[in-house]
Design goal:
Layout lengths: L7 H12 L18 E5 L2 E4 L4 E4 L2 H4 L8 H13 L8 H13 L5 E5 L2 H16 L3 E5 L8 H4 L26 H5 L1 E4 L4 H11 L3 E6 L13 H14 L2 E5 L10 H6 L5 E5 L9 E5 L1 H4 L21 H13 L2 H25 L4 E5 L2 E5 L8 H24 L2 E2 L5 E3 L6 H14 L5
Parallel strand pairs: 3-13, 5-6, 5-7, 7-8, 8-9
Antiparallel strand pairs: 1-2, 2-3, 4-10, 9-10, 11-12, 12-14
Helix pairs in contact: 3-12, 4-12, 8-9, 13-15
The protein binds pyridoxal-5'-phosphate.
Length: about 425
């Protein structure tokens, strides 16, 4: 906070520092010189406690697909609030939301809820281990799957510790991660069919599952090649491992999720974000025979799973309202917004003569300050060391210019946005990009 900063947010942040580490409880929203506190959302905008309004092009990290104030979600949540917001009993909403998910996701027959995407991924791994009787999991280098140690492995790997591309090392993200955890995670290079296949076949007998996000944000937001996914599908079947899609973000790519887009059916899918309509949620979903490890109606289940707030009725009814409002026409609109942004931004980058590019698909795009070809995590890190620092700076300048994007350059569109809103975002880039140092 500067000596001249008399904002309410700056003052509140001083109070926060006394009771929270660094005044923060969520690294992804941390800002320097101080946090900025939201008061309310309207349409696709957030108004902070000082009355500043900004376009929200993050949507609570891609979860708010209808922005703020979707009437159907509000009504559903209000009605449930009056009836009771949590019970130690099943509620009708969980059945209705599961029916919708089973109907939309081609590979899904049964669903089970958690409170976050992190827990959903964690549970897919437990299910895969219980189903196969094997311990090891393979995941792609650089991919983010939530904040627990198995899934975090090699998410922050760097050239000095990531090892040879033919045999990527399992690198801890959190200090203190036990070596045993790392030993059970096999790291494969994203989009590298030949190397990944060789590693998977070599570890085949020990592998419970291969976990993949088909367009991993932190690893570059580069879509998986169809060949890579097809190889994963074929090899997992041959070695007796399960294929897990982490669709916590990518479910917003299409009416039938990313799996519908690629036409590949995983055995298990981790869900979260949009399926809660803005309320906390996660879900494990997949093949009936695999999900049977949870089934308490046939005796003691192989995997125990409760959770005080799992399938809480607020998330169930809000999620159902959100998903019902998410029609095929909404996806056409989201795709059109994303494509329009891409075209407008490319024209701006060319005009400014900047070494930059936009990756992503549909409503998810990411700016990189490099023109090098990006195919995976390593190419993104290597091409982008200086650029990544500048993207963080860019996100800060854009914030001052009235547009919120993620610090890594992720931009996400919601159904309440119009082409005029995209123009406003691009105009903010036009003002912000020349200010980069
Ligand atoms: C691909 C992916 N998986 C899992 C998660 C974890 O979800 P949550 O933040 O709800 O725990 C995230 C969160 O951003 C994610 O992007």
């Amino acid at each position: 906070m500067t000596a001249f900063d008399t904002s309410k947010s700056a003052a509140l942040y001083e109070e926060a520092r006394k009771v929270m580490p660094g005044g923060n409880t969520r690294h992804t929203v941390f800002r320097v010189p101080h946090q900025v506190y939201a008061e309310r959302g309207e349409g696709c905008r957030i108004i902070d406690i000082d009355g500043n309004s900004r376009i929200d092009a993050v949507g609570n990290f891609t979860s708010l697909i209808h922005g703020y104030g979707c009437e159907a979600i509000r009504v559903a949540a209000r009605e449930q609030l009056e009836k009771g917001f949590c019970f130690g009993m099943a509620t009708p909403g969980e059945v209705a939301l599961s029916q919708l998910l089973v109907e939309r996701l081609p590979s899904v027959e049964h669903v089970r809820y958690t409170n976050s995407g992190t827990e959903a991924v964690m549970n897919t791994i437990k299910v895969a281990r219980a189903f196969t009787g094997r311990a090891k999991i393979a995941k792609c280098e650089g991919a983010y799957h939530g904040t627990f140690d198995v899934a975090e492995t090699s998410q922050e790997a760097r050239p000095e510790n990531w090892g040879d591309i033919d045999e990527p090392k399992s690198v801890a993200t959190a200090a203190g991660t036990p070596q045993g955890v790392l030993d059970d995670v096999i790291v494969i290079p994203f989009n590298n069919v030949e190397v990944a296949e060789r590693i998977l076949r070599a570890k085949g007998n020990d592998l419970a599952a291969v976990l993949v996000d088909v367009m991993p944000n932190r690893a570059g937001l580069v879509p998986a090649s169809p060949e890579f996914l097809q190889m994963l599908r074929t090899v997992t079947q041959e070695i007796g491992a399960l294929l897990i899609f982490d669709e916590v973000i990518t479910f917003r790519l299409g009416y039938n999720g990313a799996q519908g887009h690629y036409g590949i059916n995983p055995d298990l899918t981790a869900l979260g974000k949009i399926i809660g309509g803005g309320f906390p949620i996660g879900a494990v979903a997949g093949r009936r025979d695999v999900m049977a490890v949870y089934d308490p109606s046939i005796g003691s289940p192989k995997v125990q799973h409760g959770g005080t707030f799992s399938a809480n009725p607020m998330s169930m009814v809000a999620g159902l309202a959100c998903m019902e409002a998410l029609t095929p026409a909404c996806f056409d609109h989201l795709d059109a917004l994303g494509d329009y942004f891409q075209t407008q931004m490319q024209a701006l980058l060319d005009e400014l003569g900047l070494e930059a590019q936009i990756t992503g698909l549909g409503s998810l795009r990411r700016i990189h300050l490099t023109r090098s070809e990006l195919s995976d995590f390593r190419s993104t890190v290597l091409a982008n060391a200086e650029g990544a620092r500048k993207v963080v700076q860019l996100s800060r300048i854009l914030f001052d210019e009235g547009v919120i994007i993620a610090a890594n350059g992720l931009i996400c569109f919601s159904t309440v946005m119009s082409f005029a809103d995209v123009d406003e975002i691009v105009m903010a880039f036009r003002r912000a990009l020349p200010r980069l140092e």
